[in-house]
Amino acid sequence: PFRCAGAGLVVVDDASADGAAHRGVAEEHGATYLRRDRPGGPAAARDDGIAAVTTPVVAVIDSDCEVSEGAGRWWDAPLRLLSDERTAAVAPRIRTPIGPRLLQRYEALRSPLDLGADPARVSPGTRVSYVPAAALLLRTDRYRAVGGFDRDLRVGEDVDLIWQLVASGHRVRFEPTVTFEHPARPGVLGWIRQRFDYGTSAAPLEIRHPGQVAPVRCSPWSAAGWTAVAVGHPVIGLGILGASAALLPRRLVDIPRGEALRLAVSGHGSAGAQLARAAVRVWWPALVVMSTGSSRARRILAASVAVTAAQVAVDARRQDPSLGIGSLAAVAGMGVLDDMAYGLGVWSGCMRTRSARALLPRFPRSSHRF
């Protein structure tokens, strides 16, 4: 299909064990074959491939990604978006094909590569804060202007690139009308290692993009209220949450009081769920250590696991109403394991970079006043 579109094709072999076979397949399809003598990871391989490109637009596609069946001229929609000079990159939706194994079913529901069915402008801190580079269309000059993929990053290089483009004033779009399929890891151990590796990117990304990798973003009043509840002072905590909710309508003068109160309560609830998930996804190693001598820490960890598992189950049931109790329990368990593996990676990355900033919550300045 690329040749029908008048496009060239470059295959980058990142020091595979069977270069001759890969070269043969590339040449059979008229592709330019580039081989790296030493493995450098996705960033280096993609960067080498883009260095050989002379076209104004380039698509980077991982070898294990396939365009969904029946997609036809899948590049048409992304190219229309790239016709806007302000747009530097467009990403399709990446989905995991559903299969008989639990891991395949889980990934089909909760893959971190799948960012949903709704188009979005990509920006840190928004609903779609990043897009993976498993399949990504780029304006070549914009890519080169920001320095391309950071070759020092083995994981998170795609997030770094997207945030560089956004910080430089360019637009990045998520276009889910185009779908690629990406298989799940073949085994649970490989899947856990993948999630651990994803977590290791948090600390270096936080160093490069301060404040963008916070495990929690919420009002300090929400954080103070839920923290008070968690440490055993529910009256104080609920008082903080109630007072801040009651005072919010004074700030939202253009919104009816009832709606403002609903927003306040919803915001506090969302913040509580965020804090519970952060306890499982990022802070659990510290809570486990504290639990050896504190029953309160054990209760906080247990409650956070329960809230996180419930969130996973509710979200999975919303996506697939046919899931039974057993399947929902299995998916919820996988969700907790997913978060814990990622969190262990976050701590590992923090130790490697000697920076704990990726562990710290962030309180937006606009939320500091009642």
Overview of the molecule:
Helix content is 51%, strand content 11%. The protein is α/β, with parallel strands linked by helices. Helix 13 (295-319) packs across helix 14. It is globular and about 70 Å long. Strands 3, 4, 5, 6, 7 and 8 form a six-stranded mixed beta sheet that branches. Strands 1-2 form a two-stranded parallel ribbon.
Give the gist of this structure.
This protein has 370 residues and is an alpha/beta fold.
- Look at the structure and give the mean pLDDT: 91
The low-confidence runs, each spanning 5 or more residues with pLDDT under 50, are: none
Structural class: alpha/beta
**Shape type:** globular
Number of helices: 14
Largest sheet: 6 strands, mixed
Determine the strand fraction and express it as a percent band.
5-15%
SSE order: EHEHEEHEHEEHHEHHHHHHHH
Work out the radius of gyration.
23 Å
By DSSP, the count of extended strands is: 8
Topology summary:
Layout: E1 10-13, H1 19-28, E2 32-35, H2 41-51, E3 57-61, E4 66-67, H3 76-82, E5 87-95, H4 102-110, E6 120-121, E7 135-139, H5 140-145, H6 157-167, E8 171-181, H7 188-200, H8 202-208, H9 220-230, H10 234-251, H11 257-281, H12 284-291, H13 295-319, H14 325-353
Parallel strand pairs: 1-2, 5-8
Antiparallel strand pairs: 3-7, 4-8, 5-7, 6-8
Helix pairs in contact: 4-14, 7-14, 9-10, 10-11, 11-13, 12-13, 13-14
List its salient traits:
6-stranded mixed β-sheet; globular; alpha/beta; 370 residues; two-stranded parallel sheet
